[in-house]
Amino acid sequence: MSRGKAAKKKARPGVHPHKLTLLVLVVIAVFIGFKFGTSGSSTPSASGSSNANTAASLSSDKSNHCATNTLAQFVVVSIGQRRMWACQGKQAVYTSPVVTGMQNLAADLTPTGTYHVYAKQADVTLTGSDTTGNWSDPVHYWMPFLDNQYGTYGFHDATWRSNSAFGNISPASSDASHGCVELPLGAAQWLYGWIQVGATVTIED
User: How far is CA 98 from the centre of its chain?
Assistant: First the structure.
């Protein structure tokens, strides 16, 4: 601001016109340099901050789970993050909160590892029993990916839960699933329409 005001003093007695012109040009140049220099020095800082924020958000973003994927269809489930990502190549095309199995019961723990969806069925009733009792749960969408000594595990909707439950039930809770990956109805419908039999599924801690 002080340089701008000085540049307006044009008619000071005893100052040679050429020197005055040169002085005005220098003042203008310094003012422009100061203005853009300050802006230039702050811009990388702001940009760096923005990039840092973007990098921070990407560290937990769905796209990172697909970054190294080379498969046409790949589904990742994080038990710790209580979330599922559907990958098409390196692009994440869908994500949803989930409910996974009770970690304190071997039969009800969602098993970590890599599997393949081996069937798709609509409107079935899932039945079973464990130390917590028996269940008979009708579901709209059923996509199994594992059979082991405890039974069958897969993706399905869980309309008996409120939408706010998905992503918010700890695997340490007795309210977690019996080992399946439970999805909100809309997410289960989307996954059922998108996924093909044979698609790869990875369950991570």
Answer: 13
CA quadruple 175, 176, 181, 183: dihedral positive or negative? positive
pLDDT tens for each residue of 11-30: 334 444 444 444 445 445 44
3 state SS for 120-139: CEEEEEEEEEECCEEEEEEE
pLDDT tens for 109-144 read 999 999 999 999 999 999 988 888 898 999 999 999
- Domain containing 50 equals 2-59
Where would I find the H helices in the chain? 2-7, 17-59, 185-194
Residues 54 and 129 in one domain: no
Q: Which of 107, 100, 77 is closest to 175 using CA atoms?
A: 100
